Structures are given as structure tokens and as C-alpha cells.
Amino acid sequence: MYNILVVDDDKEIAGAIEIYLKNQNYNVFKAYDGEEALEIFKREEIHLVLMDIMMPKMDGTQATMKIRENSSVPILFLSAKSEDVDKILGLNIGADDYITKPFNPLELLARVNSNLRRCTSYSNGSALKNDVIRIGGVELNDLTKEVTVDEEPIRTPPLEYKILFLLMKNPNRVFSIDEIYEKVWQEPAYNPDTVTVHIRRIREKIEINPREPKYLKVVWGIGYKFEG
Amino acid sequence: MYNILVVDDDKEIAGAIEIYLKNQNYNVFKAYDGEEALEIFKREEIHLVLMDIMMPKMDGTQATMKIRENSSVPILFLSAKSEDVDKILGLNIGADDYITKPFNPLELLARVNSNLRRCTSYSNGSALKNDVIRIGGVELNDLTKEVTVDEEPIRTPPLEYKILFLLMKNPNRVFSIDEIYEKVWQEPAYNPDTVTVHIRRIREKIEINPREPKYLKVVWGIGYKFEG
DNA sequence: ATAAATCTTACAAATTTCTTAAGAAACTAG
DNA sequence: CTAGTTTCTTAAGAAATTTGTAAGATTTAT
Lengths: 228, 228
Hints:
The structure is a homodimer. Chain A is of the alpha/beta class.
């Protein structure tokens, strides 16, 4: 979940942008001038800034320079003036992109996505949050296929991994044995014992006491669930 | 001095862009379709790509995807179609920016500058930081294609290098054998043994004990990853 | 108490990866 | 162009890991 800071003195526009972004599951913070923007920026962990140029108190270019003093967060400019001079000015003070008003919501979203992606997916090293599921002490990373229990890595063969992934991705939802078989083996359920044994093996690895599971619980007569 | 690859089947436009860029002291390579672009991209050290969407043979989106398989070079799209669908498509396949034709030369230059600056602002003169990957004692320099282990240079033939590059550029991410084959050989996976043997050879060079790899680890039933 | 469901264990089978080596192909230098 | 070197592919047996099965033990619901 990304946090986006929208800076615009026109509350109507800011509100509209907020709606578009929230629809796409972004978290939105709003500021109505540059000073307010800086305050929020200090306080919150902002992943991207949408910045209007014309504003009272401190305008967009000033605010951008301030932010740039100690952050390389992507900053996208918004402006009613569509002159190219502005564009170049904007891009040279450390802005990452530029959108002219009136803008098309789809284009706005596309540029936001693009700039966010650039700063995350190509930055090698840490996995994106989307690929990591953590429930209690159990953490599953779908990029590295690594599972840790209380920060200790455990070995998870393909089938065990797939079962764990299925259950952890839908915490608390109960899956019948047949359902697990079909989803993991990708063929009609055949031998329920197989699933049972795998469940046992997973428990051996993630539970302190496999006989009294804390995470991977049975729901009698129905199936299994990962409790979280 | 930056190398910019201009891909456009309209020679007039490509020529015009070339003039603008050369005026700004950029080095320009021109390609007239996607395939040609890929060839040049492989051969030369390209710092930024200006890519037309509509082209014969291989279009811009296809070429972009190919390039994205093993490079995060900035790619800016050019297009005569100003429909938003195109924009989003472009930005979601790994493009960094989008310019609609007819474009204003100044805007083009501004966007080129902006995208270059973002990716190279830490350049120290010789090798750009982006081109050097270091994980543990293993350092890979993509400019010189040199690899050192604990500061000792090792020999890395083309395929070994490409595999190592792929894995080191995405540390911890697991790649299946087929995936490695497709990305490195650029053709559908054929003989998995080939990959296996190359992995063995790389291990022989970078690992103290190839039988208990510290870096290049297997994830049973899934694939290989470079741990870092 | 009884039947049904789940758990546990151990071992055999299947799969995946490792290692080695030999010949083919590609490249380099003379 | 040729000889020599390096790199790549293929193959096959060995080693390691994972998966399936089955049988008996235990737990739960009625």
C-alpha cells in the first residue's frame, strides 16, 4: 500500500485526484499549500508526491526543492499553465514528471503507476510488500520462495510451499482437503491422505508443538485453515 | 557522454530527433524497427531509449519487453496515437515516460534530461553505480563485463556471465531453470541440463565449496537464486 | 461405545539436482 | 586457412530431496 501526497490549493481538484487514487488502492494525504506539504512529508512515509505549481505561501517549485534536500521520492508536477518553459523548469528542479491540467484521470494514474514502479521494482534487493505475507511469526516471501518462522528460515519443498501459500494468502478461510488437493496439485482430488501428510509436515516445521497447532488448525469435518 | 538509441521507422522523425539530441551533445544510435533496436542495444552501451510504438516487424511494446528482460535502462515512448489506452499500455510494460507526436523539441529534451538524470545522478565519472553489482564478495561490473570474487578476477564466458548477471540483478529472487534458459538464450527452453551445467561451472568459480554454495543456491523443485 | 475423521510414522517410489566427461562448435592467433 | 584454445552441449549415472502410500494410533462427534 503506497502513500501518495497530493498538494493542490484547489480543494476540488485535490478531492478528485484523491478519489481516483483511492480507487486504485493508494493511500492519500492532502495538503493545500507547500508548507503544509512539507509538514506532512516529514511526518508520514510518503512514496510519491503530486504537486501543483501555483499555490499560496510556498509554491510547488520551492516545496520540491525543500523535499529534494533530503529525499529522492518521485515528485510529479501538476499545472494549469501548459507552456513548455514551465515543463522544463519543473523537470530541472528535481521533478520526475509533469502533467498539464486539465488532465485525463487515466493518464494521471498511468504516470503515478509508472513512477512508483520505477522506484520499487527495479530497485534490487528487498522484495515488494505485495510478495510477502506475514502472519504471527510466520513470514512467506513469494519472490524468494523463502519461509521464516520467528525469523528462522525453514525448508519448504514445492508442494508444502504451495499449500502454505494457499492457506496464508487466505487466512482464516477453511479449505477442505479436496479443495487443497485440486488447487495445489491442479488435478481432481485423488488421495486425501497425501494432503494430510503434507499438512503434518508443514506443522512440524512451523509449529512449536505440532500436536497443538497455533497456526495451521483443523476444522473438524470441514478442512484446514491458517489462523491469523 | 550519453548514448541514446532512437527507434522510429519514420526516418524523417528519427533524423530530426537525432539533430536535437546531437545539439545537446548526446551520442545517437538509430534503429528503424524493433529487431534492429535489439541488435544495437546488445552491441552498444545505451543509456536511454526513445521508442516509437508503431513499427514494422517488431513493434515498440514488444521491443520494450525484450529489453526489460535484462536491463532497466530508461525507455521513453513516442507515439502518434494520443489515446490514453496506449499510454497506459506503454507505461505498464516497463516504459518510463511517454511523449505524443507531434512533440515539442524542448519537451522532448526536458524529458530525456529528466530521465537520464534520475538514473545516473550518482555517476562518479567512470563506471556508473548502476552498472556495478556487488553481493558479498562477488562483484560484477556490467560495463567491463568483469567479475571479481574477493577482489580476484575470474573468467566468465558469455553465457555464464549472462546467467550470473540475471541472478545478481535480482538477488534472492528464484528463477526456474526454464526461466533462466528463456531469458539468457532468448529462445524457448530446450535442454535444462545445459543450464544445470553452467550453474555448476559458475559455482566452481565463485564458491569456496561448490557443493555447499554460499551464494548461488538451489531452491528444490523451483529453481536457483543468488542469495544476498 | 462406535464410527468417522484426523494424526503419526516409516519406508518405498519418483523426481530433481549434481557431477563428470567427451565430443561439437565457436573463437583466436599465427 | 589452420591449429590451438576456449566455450557449449549432450548424456548418463550418482546423489540428494521430495512425494506417495499404507497401516496403526489417536481424537472427535454422536
